[in-house]
Each structure stands twice: as C-alpha cells, then as structure tokens.
Structure prediction request, 501 residues.
Amino acid sequence: MKAAPESATSTDADVEERETLLDVPGGSSNGAGKLVEIPVDKVMTTLLFLFPAVGGLLFGYDIGATSGALVSLKSAVTSGTSWYDLNAFQSGFVVSSSLLGALAGSAAAFVVGDKLGRKREILLGAVLYGGSAALMAAAPNLEVLLIGRTLYGLGIGFTMHAAPAYIAEAAPAKVRGLLISLKEAFVVIGILLGYLTSYLFIDDVGGWRAMYGLAAGPAVILLAGMAWLPDSPRWLLLNGDSREKAEAALIRARGKFGNDLERIRIEIAAIARSVEEAQADENPGFVGLFRGRFLKPLLIGSSLMLFQQITGQPSVLYYAADIFEKAGFGAGKDATGVSVLLGFFKLVMTGVAVFTVDSLGRRPLLLGGVSAMVVALLALGGSQLVLSGGMATWTSVIALLIYVGAYQVSFGPISWLIVGEIFPLAVRGPASAIATITNFGSNFVVSLVLPSVQDAFGPWGTYLAFAAIGVVAVSTIFAIVPETKGKTLEEIEALFDGKAE
Prediction:
C-alpha cells in the first residue's frame, strides 16, 4: 500500500489510513489506532461459497459415478446394451472424455473467461452439466455417451476455472483460505455421492444411466443459485463497469453488514486502486504471461496443477471400484462399498486440511502431505512386487488410505487455493485458465493411458513411477511455492512485483 502524498488533504490521508488498515486480514480502525475484526455475515458468505462449490461437487460426482458406471457398463449382466464389451482404450476414453471436455472448456475460458465474468462462466457450466447429464442417461450407443461426457467436461472446465476466482474475489479476505479449501471438500462430497450412487445402482440393469443422469438435479440448483448471486465486484471494475455497480454488488456480498457504507466505499476504493494499477500495465498477451513478474506465479500455479494429476491419485479414483475388485474385495457391491468407505475417509482428511490451512499454512501442508504420498506409493509398489495373498491386499489397502489421506491435506485443496489467490489481477483470468488447462490436460492423459500402462508394467511399476514424480514435486514445492496465509490478494501480488515489505 503506497503512503499518501504529502500534498494530500487530511481527509485523503484518513481514507488512505483506513484503506491500509482494511488491507490487513480481519482488521479495521476502531478510532484508537487498534485493529478490530471486520464482521462477516455468515449466511451470505455461506451462499457466496455454496453455489459455486456445487460446480466442484458435480466434478467430484463424475469421478465417483464413473468408477461404478464403468463396471456397470462393461458387464454383460448389468449393461443393458449390446456394446458393453469395451477394450482398454475404450474404457479409458469413457473415463477421460469428460477430462477432454474439461480441457477444451479451460482453453475456451482462456479466450472468453474475462469477457463472460466469473458468474456467467459458472452459469454456462451449470447448463452444460444439466444438459449433458440427461444426454448420457439416454445414450443409445457409445458415441452419444462419449459426446455427453465431453459436454459434461466442458461444464467442468468452465466451473472449475471460475469458481475459485469468484470465491476469492467475492468473499471476505479473512475467510478466503477456508472457503476455497472447503470447495475441495465439496469435490470430495461429490466423489462420495458418486460412490454411493454407484453402490445403489451397481446391480441394476442399465444402472450406469441413473449414475450419470442424477447429476441433473444439482445442476439445476447451481443454475438457480448463481443466477441469484451478485457479480464479483473486482470483475465488474476490471470489466469497466462503474464504481456504483461494483459497490452495489459488494453491498449484496456483505449481507447484513453491507449497510456500513463508509467501510464498503473504503473497500471499493482499495479494489479500484488495484484494478487501476492492473489496467495501467500493458496487456501482456499470451507470451507476456511467461515473462517478468507474471512468470513465477504462473509457474507456481501450473506446476501445482500438473503435479496434482501426475502423482496419480485423481486418476486412480476413477478406477477405484475396479482396483478394489482386483485387490480381492469381490465384484459389484463389495468393491463399490469399499469405495464408499474410501470416499468418507477422503472427506474426513479434507476437513483436516480445511480447518488447518489458515493456521498451519499452505507450504507445511503441501510439503508434509506430498512427502507422505511418496512413502505410501513406495509401499503400494513394494507390496505388489514382493508380497502375495492377504498380506499384499491389506498392505495395499493401508498404503492406499495413507496415500489418499496425504493427498487430501496437500494437493487436493491447497493447489486450488493457491491458484485462486496467487495470480496478479491483470492476468488472473488467463493465468487461471492456463493452470486449469494444465490440470485437466495432464488428468486427461493420465486417465486415458492408465489402463494400458497398468497392463504393460503392472500395478507395482505404475505406483513406483508415481512415487518418482512425487519426489520431483516435493523438490519443486520447496523451491518456488511461497507462504500466502493471512495475506490479502493485493499483498500476495506484491510478493512478485517488488513491493512487499
């Protein structure tokens, strides 16, 4: 925050001081030079988080539902189709076609995301979710199913690009870390709901149709909720709208405390100044994102998105039911039932991350969690290589639980949190899109080739390869990822432009 110039009037200086104090998370002036908490309307703040988070829930639901749908679809007994006999590549493409769509959606968001705005991106995602869920449920052949899954993935791409930015920009700074991390909890809740749906319908003929079609309900909730919420005040100012319109949006976002017009106007003034500074920069263009002060945050966000996927865990989840079958838990409800327990465990561990991210910090959770993932992957690979029978099965299950738990306190929530807060405002839209493209592109590739890789090298070779990648991930995090807890978006931006104290 720049100091007021000497020529400023006393009123200007007072406003500048109040703006500076408001930039401190949870702080404002009480008239005696001390800091007091800025009130948070819990109901309105919950809604600002809840509806965008439903977009994440539908992403997670697809992961969990596909785990069971693939088993249902490939069974001569439960498929209800004449095209159930899928080879390894076709199975991989059923899983990864939604990720291909998510990749395309992220690429589209790079071009039109800032023009649409965070709110309209999520609305578009809701329409794609609902329409494609209905299409998948009614698919008469594999080709139509793949089209539906690709369109569903487009919805994933738009919502997962816009939701972290919307939450970060609309919610109060003091709870930003909590809320963006909670969004990952909704992804996990979605996975759990997908597993539960798989468990309920796994023995039904055509059960995979219900597993996919039920996503239409939450899509309608997402559409209605986002239509009611205000636009992001930061996006409105960045888009050239008036201060009055941004002020009205912030008043709605602050709920019952929006009637404190002095504080609202001070917050709008601080946001407007950051927007003016962002607009004063020349448009860096695509190549410019990889230069100067934009390069390091782009490397941080993109590397976290890449390592989140290529250390294996999200892709493994798509095949959870199949993995548990091979581990000896039986087919159908036995394997999907274990998947449900895995989903509950993921949710518990996500809660650990959510409620410690603003106390322990981002870096310790990332470094500790990813290191534990490496140990678990080594145990998974070693058990498959040197053990047999029940010993191998239970060692694999324990190691898998450690692996999943470590992911949920590190890469799962923290990567999306950092992507939501680390990019400078001038490039937040396109930089977030590049990070999301990296995420879904690498997820698509890993999910597509995973069955073939497992066929070629066996589970032990696959796990050991993921462990080696994990070692590289820990080294990269240690070298380049800063601690951002307790900082406003403007203070985080200052870390990369030489203005931080």
About this structure: Confidence is low (pLDDT under 50) at residues 1-37. The two ends are 10 Å apart (CA to CA). Residues 374 and 471 are 7 Å apart (CA to CA). Strands lie at 28-29, 35-36.
